[in-house]
Amino acid sequence: MQEGLVHPFDQLLCSGSFKAYGQVFNNWDPLIHEYIDLPTALAMSCDTYFYELGRRFYVLPPDRGHPLQGWANRFGFGELSGVDLSPEVAGLVPTPEWRRKAYPASQGFGPIDRTWKPGYSIQLSIGQGQLLVTPLQMTRLFAMIANGGNLVTPHVAEDVELTGTNGQPARILRRFGAQPAQPTGVDPIALRYVQQGLEEATHASFGTGSGVFGNFPVNIAGKTGSAEKNITLQVALKLGAALKARGVHVVYTRTTDTLIALGDRGRIANQAGGDLFISIHVNAANPNWKDPGAARGYETYFLSEAKTEDARRVEKMENASVRFETGSSVARDDPLSFILSDMQQNEHLRESMKLADSVQAHLGGVEPGPSRGVKQAGFMVLVTAYMPAVLVEIGFGTNRQDAAFISDPARQSEIADSIADAAVDYLNAYWGSVQGVANRVNGGNP
């Protein structure tokens, strides 16, 4: 707004895609087609609105410099925050000058590699491309928006002391103190429209986070992401309700926001005498992929040795939470426990595969993303469940379209219903086959 590229009430087209310079840049919502203003674009997280702003930055005359990157620097991106802990990284705000240095001709890069293309400005307008930002930098940005435009320096330490000897008091080597906030020069009126958009994102009916934050006891504003633990808990609770409605007895490993050790989740199912074990998860792209934000879709896993690099990636990601566990009752390195677990899991391997096939097939009726298929990997959460067991990745939290879908309460119900139908279909087929075997053993007598 301060660069004169847009007025807060200018109506720009929010559509499913944005075409410029022979390229197509997709919006997370492929079906939308309406003209909206700036606060609404923030609330709806409309990519194409900001793509157009990125294009307008790109076509500015050279004497204007690079104001998009300049404002990012003013807001603390690409700079050290000055926090009194180390080490700290500055991140990266890519510029044409940076690109020429990063892709030198001496290393075999050609002129096209060193050229700042329009797509780079368009991607940068929504925080994608080669932009690198730390969580601390994002926290400073939103604190700046909330406090009226002043960038604070994070402060956590009081002083550094050298322990005294022979009863002497500690000697203070260095004392730290809060630093005054630095004004960023952002126009208060422009900032107010940004605040309005962030408030509508969490409270307006069209806001991307209203379903999660709209009823919080305190006022919340922000560009909302999707926390896996909240999404999976909501889907799991809806799945439990859907299964109960179909006459299935349900035991939850958690019904509130608590951490249950991975190994203990299967144990809970075993103690309940469960017939099935279903674990709900949200996928995440590898940040080193060429276009991590584009990865999307759903997949269902059963327990076995991972066969592909992608399966090993998901296995490592889902097993990573073990580092936060402090109270698991399952011994991780007991050889006898491992042997017994392996024998019991082999017994259920084929049935787990059938259950995974059923879940994947039913999800295809509701999921907007592509099917990534039935896969196998060594998930710790499945190791101790001595019954047919699957892990369901309902979508990518790192993809805007998937994240919007799995965060929507109505869509969560659709996901839950499809998994419930899959489980019931599997159980009916399983018990039908068991009854058929019993009839054959008994000479055809029921």
Keywords, please?
12 strands, alpha+beta, 446 residues, Aminopeptidase, Beta-lactamase, two-stranded antiparallel ribbon, 16 helices, four-stranded mixed beta sheet
Description:
The protein is of the alpha+beta class and 446 residues long. The protein is 43% helix and 13% strand. The protein is built from 16 helices and twelve strands. It has helices spanning 38-44, 47-58, 67-74, 96-102, 111-114, 118-124, 135-147, 188-203, 210-213, 228-245, 262-271, 309-319, 335-363, 380-383, 400-407, 409-441, and strands spanning 12-15, 17-20, 23-26, 33-36, 150-151, 159-162, 171-175, 182-183, 277-283, 298-303, 371-377, 389-396. It has a four-stranded mixed beta sheet. The chain has a two-stranded antiparallel sheet with strand order 1-4. β2 and β3 form a beta hairpin. The radius of gyration is 27 Å and the shape is globular. The relative contact order is 0.10. The model is unreliable at 322-333 (pLDDT under 50).
